[in-house]
Structures are given as structure tokens and as C-alpha cells.
Amino acid sequence: MLVSSLGIVATVSADYGDALSKCILFFEGQRSGYLPRGQRMTWRKNSGLKDGSDIGMDLTGGYYDAGDNVKFTFPMAFTVTNLAWSVIEFGQFMGSEKQNALQAILFGTDFLLKATDVSERIVAQVGDGFSDHNCWERPEDMDTLRTSYVVNASVPGSDLAAEIAAALASASMAFQSADAKYSKTLLERAIEVFDFADKYRKSYNGAMKRGDSCPFYCSLNGYMDELVWGAAWLYRATKSQKYWDFVQKNINDILYLGPSYGWDAKQGGVYVLFSQFVMNNAGSNPFVTQADNLVCSLLPNSPTQYLKYTPGGLLTQTGQNLQLSAASSLLILIYAQYLKSFNRQVHCGNVVADASKLIQIAKGQADYILGKNPLGMSYMVGYGNKFPQRIHHRASSLPSIKDHPQQIKCKEGTPWYQSKKPNPNLLTGALPGGPINSDNFSDDRGNAPESEPTTYLNAFFVGVLAYFKGNPN
Fold first, then answer.
1. Of 133, 392, 393, 404, which is the active-site residue?
2. Where are the compositionally biased (Polar residues) regions (predicted)?
3. Distance CA 409, CA 138 (A)
4. Which of 152, 277, 284, 314 would suit a FRET pair with 426, their CA atoms being 20 to 30 Å apart?
5. Please, which residues bridge with residue 351 across strands?
6. 66/59 Cα distance (integer angstroms)
7. Could you tell me which residues are beta bridge partners of residue 122?
8. Rounded distance, CA 174 to CA 82, Å?
9. Which whole-number Å values give the CA distances from 63 to 18, 48, 85, 413, in the listed order?
């Protein structure tokens, strides 16, 4: 079903509090393992209960990364990092949703602790990607290979390990006041895992056998951006001089990659995160300069703008535009707070932007996603009156256990995949890849780039919505 752009931007008044609640609720639909008491997305049931048994470990829990049933530790850790960063920066605006956000982090960190429980060995993935992608079945019914893949001293993965270190270090800060004991556990493990990442330097690409994270989550940027990212978070959590020195020593190795930010590109995050420590001193470069460059890359009329907007106003890239929009919005909102703290502006040639301008840009992106766009369509499932109905998501698109208790085997889900009917289960809060550069959107579960949700996309948007919940005008 192709939803066509009319070229008219609909006017809607966003309810950021409602959107935040739904954005966090989404993570309950991605849970693997035993579902806890209080599970609100009740059409989901326990799944993956034997995960890890092939290597003698309990690897239940954690998150399915997207619309499939594989647990990829690399993007899962990145999801946790962004959820934690959102709580650290904007938790004061979340109200009662802060506890739900912490629970979302907890479900990820508990798995990351399991995945790193053996010294100098990390579980990189649970589930064979090729086997899984050959089927369309509920996670509760999985009969695909649940192979566990690991990295260790012989076949290391610095990118994977360092991202886990960033996740655990940031989460330790998010839990500091809520659970000091758990916070301490997370930080201790973060330090241990970072040491492993630094000691055995190599990308996790190709470290495993057929079915591993590549080609699904290849680390194309290499591992140095993750190492610097992990050290930056450990510095923020510990204020230890050795992590400061690590970042300063290695920052030039990632400069050529630019200020991008995503599950495989941490440079933009490093620049923004570290800018708060150096903004008003002689050591501000390259962090502040590069964070400014990130702003200038998306600032309209900037002489160095290279990111474009759709006619309706959404930031664009090659596919999955909502990821770029939400990630950029989170970074510039955080950076705006640092700019305000130091009473500073960003200069892009003759174009000057202060914190309020960055906030305005992020608000425009948030409002577009929530319905102020040419289609008058919310891109958050369950939010507003018009939203995607056919997202690329196995559990959402197949009947629930309650309605269809019989197992749906590998290929038996194909008719539901091919159906033009709306998904029977509402994956509330899910954000799909989003519209293409013309503002058109194919509400078709067969079009994965436009219709598949991911945990890290929602993680970006949690912080954005939290900010605007507390600062709606």
C-alpha cells in the first residue's frame, strides 16, 4: 500500500508525554526470554528460553533488535547506551516514565552482564541470522538455529566489547540514584570489558562462522570509534585520568570519519559527549569543532550543510530516514544544553545558531515524526489516528498465542507476511524506517527499509520526547 504525499503539511498538536510513554512501551514488545510481572504488552509471551544452552550458558533475556528473532549484542548495547544517555540528560522531564525507561535499560543490561560473565569472552549474538531470515514465525514458536556466537582472546571484537563498555558505563550513571549496588556492578563490568576491548584490538567482523552478525551488523567503521566512545563514557562515569588520556590520544584516529552517529558510527556521539568537558578551555579542539561541524552539516543555509531535508522537512539519507532524524535530534538537543551552560553559539560561516535554534530543528523533526508532515500521518505505531498498520515485524504480523495457540512453523507464517491486512497485534510505540525522500511512505511489511522498526531508533527518540515533554513550547 503506497501512501502518497499531497505536498501539504498537516497541522497537529503533539502530545509528547503520550508519545514518550508509547516509545518506551515498544521495548516490551522486543523482549526475549521470560517476561516479567507487569508486562504490559500482553500479546507477547515467553520466548528463547533455551538460549545459550549450546555453550552451557544462560543467555535468556535481552532484546530482539528489529522485526526478526535474533539477538545481536552490538546494536543491543548501542540501544542501551542511548536509553541511558537519554535518562542521564533528560530524566528530570520524564516524570513517572523514568521508571519505565530504567526498566527498559535493565532488561538490556541484565543480558549484557550475562553475555560478559566469563572473563575475556563475550557473546556477540544468539540465533543464526540466515536461518532466522528464512522464516516468518513468532519468537514464541522459533524452530530456527539458536546458535550462540562468541568473541574471545583468539578471535576478539574490540568494537563489540567497547560498545558494551559504553552501555554498561552509561547505565551505571542512569542507575546511580535508583540502585547504587547495581550501578556499581555495571561500572565494574564496564571497566573489565573495556580492558578486554583495548588489549585485543580487532574488529569482530569475520570472527565467527556462517550466520554471524555480518552481513547483518557489519562494523564497517572499524573498532577505534567504539574504543574512544567506550573510554569517553568511562571517563564521564569515573573521572579517571587514564580514560581522559585514552580519548585525547586516540581522537585523531576517528576524525576522518566525520560527525555521523549510529550503531556503527560513534564519532558524533564522542564529539558531543566530550564537548561538555572542554567547551571553555584550550583543549576544546577537536571535540567542540567537530560537534559544531555536526550542527553545521544539518543547519539550513549553512555553507557546509550537506544533509538534506525532504519537501516536508524530514532529514534524509539513503533509506531509513527516521534513524537519521531521531539520532541527529538527540545529539543536537544534548549539545544545545551544553551550549546554554556555557553561553555559547555555533558559527557556520556567516550563519549563527544558538541553543534555541538547535532545539527548534529537533522539534521540527519530532513533530514531523508524530504527524506534522505531508501525509498527516504519525510514524509511531499506536500514536494518533493515522499510523503504520503493516510494519515488518514477525510477532506483530502473526496472530498471538492467545488467538492461535498452535505452533506456526518456519514457512507457515508466509501467508500472514504476504497479507495486505493490518498487523493483528499492535506493537505500540514502534518507529519504522520511515518515508522516502519524497515524503511518500509504503505501508507494506514487505518493504523492510521503510517498515521495519529497530530498538536503537526508539532509543534515540526516547530522549527527544522526554525533552519536549518537559519543554513543549
1. 392
2. 416-426
3. 9
4. 314
5. 348
6. 18
7. 151
8. 11
9. 23, 11, 18, 21
Q: What is the pLDDT of residues 373-431, one digit of tens each?
A: 999 999 999 999 999 999 999 999 999 999 999 999 999 999 999 999 999 999 999 99
Total number of domains in the chain: 1
Domain containing 394: what range?
Answer: 2-251+373-470
Can 392 be counted among the known catalytic residues? yes
CATH of the domain at 461: 1.50.10.10
- Helices 267-278 & 321-341, crossing angle to 10 degrees? 10
Please list the residues that pair with 33 across neighbouring strands: 47
In a domain, 206, yes or no: yes
Residue with cell 543467555: 59
Give residue for cell 560478559. Answer: 116
- pLDDT tens, 181-196? 999 999 999 999 999 9
Distance between CA atoms of 373 and 436, rounded to whole angstroms?
Answer: 12
Kindly provide the b/e burial profile for residues 381-410, where b requires at least 16 CB atoms within 10 angstroms of the residue's own CB: bbbbeebbbbbbbbbbbbbbbeeeeeebeb
Question: The whole model's pTM is what?
Answer: 0.95
Tell me whether residue 230 is in a domain.
yes
Collapse the DSSP code of 426 into the 3-class scheme (helix H, G, I; strand E, B; otherwise coil) and give the result.
coil
Does 13 fall in a domain? yes
Residue 305 counted as domain residue: no
